[in-house]
Each structure stands twice: as C-alpha cells, then as structure tokens.
C-alpha cells in the first residue's frame, strides 16, 4: 500500500492556534498539492458541517491550500475519488464513523490511500485511520453498525493519551487500564498518542513526530515507551 498519512493526536495544543503545532508536517505531507478535501462529519460540539469547514479553510488558506468540505458536493464519493488530499477533523468518533458508512466513503477512502493520496487526521480523524475505533475516548452518542474503521494502518490509536496523575485521588480507570481491558478481547496493538504528537506513515514505514514519546500497548507484555528516534516499523506488520 502506498500510504502517505499524517495522524495527529489533536488539532490544538495549549498556547497554539488550530493546527499550528503541526504546520511544518502538514506542509511536508501536502507538498505540491493545491487543494484538500475536508470531511467535517465528527462535528465537535455539534457545530454545523459548514462552520467546521470554515474553521479548517481559514487555517489552510494561510498555507496556500484551497480547502472544500465534502458536504459542498452533490456526490461525496466522487469528491473523494477526485481529491488531491483528504483531511478528517476531530470531534466524536462514533458520529464520524457512522457518517462515513452512511455516505459510502469507507471504501473510496481506502482505495485512494492505497493509490498514495495524502491523508491527514486529527483526533477522531486519527481514530478512524486505525483498525477499529475500539480505543477512542469518546462517548457512543450514536449507534454504529460496526467498529471497523478505515484500516489504513493495522493497529489502533488512542489520541489524547493521558498518563496517570500520581497526586490525583480519583479512583477511576486510567487509560492504561482501559486499553488493557481492550486487549482482553482484541489482538491489535494500540498506540497512545500524547498531545502534540503525531505519526507519519509512508508506505510500510512509520515515524513518531512531536515533543513526546508514544506509549505502545501489545496484547501480551507491559506497555512500552518509544521516542521519536526509535523504530516503530514493527507496528506495520501487526495482525
């Protein structure tokens, strides 16, 4: 597969504007491209597709990239098949995946990525790039017929990964605990992406970018920490 992906934990980090922390990597991903198709289905906070698109359009305009929302086309499938690149924004992962299936975009997106079309996601848009959405942090506010996601990579991702706070008196489950529960029923690895971090995937090569290490969970063994300089390519050979 000729993957060309940028999978970002979050669209905004503390003290930065929308997508600002990932600007350099976005420009590399979209080098030579003049336009990008935005899929706003995740609707953070329930905002309209058009309002969400306007927010994304403003950011990309600064970089000389023309952005249009998929909802602006009469034929969403045709829009994906003709897009130079695709960006799926964050919000609620269940709402996003349901809309992708309802609008019959799952297979066209997989096909275009296999052909080498650049794909970038933030938060929910990163979640759906994985094998399933079973490790999202979002509430299941709508019903989806399947948790099977775009499967652009053969593992799951947990964006916004948070480490336990040793000074906290909260007795609820940590992210580590929840992912361990996931692995009682599922085999695929899970990558915990901390805020400001992202995965750059080119073909069968994967690179961690950003200021923080990633926490990798396997079904067997203890979680492992990987720095940006360390090899994560084994994830591309997962189940």
Automatic annotation (TrEMBL):
<keyword id="KW-0645">Protease</keyword>
<protein>
    <recommendedName>
        <fullName>dipeptidase E</fullName>
        <ecNumber>3.4.13.21</ecNumber>
    </recommendedName>
</protein>
<keyword id="KW-0224">Dipeptidase</keyword>
<dbReference type="InterPro" id="IPR005320">
    <property type="entry name" value="Peptidase_S51"/>
</dbReference>
<dbReference type="GO" id="GO:0005737">
    <property type="term" value="C:cytoplasm"/>
</dbReference>
<keyword id="KW-0720">Serine protease</keyword>
<comment type="similarity">
    <text>Belongs to the peptidase S51 family.</text>
</comment>
<dbReference type="InterPro" id="IPR029062">
    <property type="entry name" value="Class_I_gatase-like"/>
</dbReference>
<dbReference type="Pfam" id="PF03575">
    <property type="entry name" value="Peptidase_S51"/>
</dbReference>
<dbReference type="GO" id="GO:0016805">
    <property type="term" value="F:dipeptidase activity"/>
</dbReference>
<dbReference type="GO" id="GO:0006508">
    <property type="term" value="P:proteolysis"/>
</dbReference>
<keyword id="KW-0963">Cytoplasm</keyword>
<keyword id="KW-0378">Hydrolase</keyword>
<dbReference type="GO" id="GO:0008236">
    <property type="term" value="F:serine-type peptidase activity"/>
</dbReference>
């Amino acid at each position: 597969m000729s993957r060309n992906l940028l999978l970002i934990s979050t669209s905004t980090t503390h003290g930065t504007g929308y997508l600002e922390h990932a600007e350099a990597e976005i420009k590399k991903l979209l080098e030579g491209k003049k336009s990008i198709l935005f899929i706003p289905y995740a609707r953070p906070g329930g905002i309209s597709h058009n309002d969400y698109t306007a927010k994304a359009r403003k950011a990309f305009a600064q970089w000389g990239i023309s952005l249009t929302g998929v909802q602006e086309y009469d034929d969403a499938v045709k829009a994906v098949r003709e897009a130079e690149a695709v960006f799926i924004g964050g919000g609620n992962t269940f709402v996003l995946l349901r809309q992708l299936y309802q609008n019959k975009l799952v297979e066209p997106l997989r096909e275009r990525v296999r052909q080498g079309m650049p794909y970038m996601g933030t938060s929910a848009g990163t979640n759906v790039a994985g094998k399933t959405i079973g490790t999202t942090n979002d509430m299941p506010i709508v019903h989806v017929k399947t948790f099977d996601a775009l499967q652009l990579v053969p593992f799951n991702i947990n964006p916004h990964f948070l480490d336990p706070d040793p000074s906290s008196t909260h007795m609820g489950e940590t992210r580590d605990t929840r992912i361990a529960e996931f692995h009682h029923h599922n085999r695929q690895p899970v990558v915990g992406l901390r805020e400001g971090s992202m995965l750059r995937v080119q073909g069968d090569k994967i690179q961690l970018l950003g200021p923080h290490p990633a926490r990798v969970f396997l079904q067997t063994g203890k979680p492992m920490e990987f720095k940006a300089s360390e090899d994560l390519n084994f994830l591309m050979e997962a189940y």
